[in-house]
Design a protein that fits this description.
The protein contains 14 helices and 9 strands. By secondary structure, it is an alpha/beta fold. The chain has a single domain, classed as 3-Layer(aba) Sandwich (Rossmann fold), CATH 3.40.50.300. Strand 1 and strand 2 form a beta hairpin. The radius of gyration is 19 Å and the shape is globular. The relative contact order is 0.13. Its EC number is 2.8.2.-.
Length: 313
């Protein structure tokens, strides 16, 4: 255990829950920390990194991209530096994405962000209610990306196959159950999405879907750049859209995770940059699984008033 606090076993999942206001603990298999009930991979999270996250001081010109895992995080790590620096591709060609746009809750954040000049760009997988208090007192801007949860599940299933720091996903049917129960990193998709749909950030938050970006990336980039206060020409937007295509990113060693040792992320089992499409779930779900998943999503999201682009898929 990372803290000397009383805890108890929750069900048969191996999950440990801390009975205290301090909420960092470990799971039985030792691959995850548990933070406020969320499973976080220990390879990139620690008690110290989470304390840094909790006390992080946002600056007014910070930009933060928020996603549930496998919803377009790497894409945002490519897009945002280009929009913020007027289309200059040098940073995305020379600096790995985890240093260029670090995860706020992860191990390298303290070191990287302390020396990063403003405006700083960062990403996070955390739900709204766990964000540092300074986010809400600052003028920092947030971009929240949502993706069809069926495609999120498929992408996460393949990611678990190639990432040694995550649990083996088992069969697709088994992983589907884990996903619906929130027994995956960062918990339930529905909880995460709902937490960021009802905020008090008003004009400081920009919502976009993965599917919108696939259909009209240049149009999304134009709206996103205006939200960020950047006046970019049509030519620059075209260049950014071209550089942020799936093929371009897959060929970019600073973005495709090929720099990560194979014993940590094994691209021979499943490539990190796999397909980058919408609708791949149709090749994985059988009718029974689709019905089960859809029923669960409708039940969990029944009070959601925000229509999302794939509702009729």
């Amino acid at each position: 255990m990372h803290s000397q606090l009383p805890a108890h076993r929750c069900s048969d999942s191996g999950l440990w829950v801390v009975k205290s206001t301090s909420v960092i603990s470990t799971m039985a298999d030792d691959k995850y920390l548990v933070y406020h009930g969320l499973m976080l991979p220990k390879i990139v999270h620690s008690e110290e990194s989470l304390k840094h996250f909790e006390t992080f001081e946002f600056r007014d010109d910070d930009v933060l991209a928020l996603t549930y895992p496998k919803s377009g995080t790497t894409w945002m790590q490519e897009i945002l530096p280009l929009l913020m620096n007027g289309g200059d591709t040098s940073p995305v060609k020379t600096v790995p994405n985890w240093d260029r746009v670090p995860w706020l809750e992860e191990l390298r954040a303290a070191e990287v962000l302390s020396s990063m000049p403003s405006p700083r760009i960062m990403v996070s997988h955390m739900p709204y209610h766990l964000m540092p208090k300074s986010l809400f007192s600052s003028k920092a801007k947030v971009i929240y990306v949502t993706r069809n949860p069926k495609d999120v599940l498929v992408s996460s299933f393949h990611f678990h196959k190639m990432a040694s720091f995550l649990d083996d996903p088992g069969t697709f049917d088994e992983f589907l159950d884990k996903f619906l129960e929130g027994e995956v990193m960062f918990g339930k998709w529905t909880d995460h999405v709902k937490s960021w749909q009802k905020t008090y950030m008003e004009d400081r938050i920009f919502h976009v879907t993965y599917e919108e970006m696939l259909k009209d990336l240049k149009g999304v980039l134009s709206r996103m750049s205006r939200f960020l206060g950047k006046d970019l020409s049509d030519e620059i937007l075209e260049q950014v859209a071209s550089h942020c295509s799936f093929k371009s990113m897959k060929d970019n060693a600073m973005s495709n995770y090929s720099l990560v040792p194979q014993d940590i992320m094994d691209n021979t089992k499943s490539p990190f940059m796999r397909k980058g499409i919408a609708g791949d779930w149709k090749k994985h779900f059988n009718p029974e699984q689709e019905a089960k998943f859809t029923d669960a999503m409708k039940r969990e999201m029944r009070d959601n008033c925000n229509k999302i682009t794939w509702d009729e898929d």
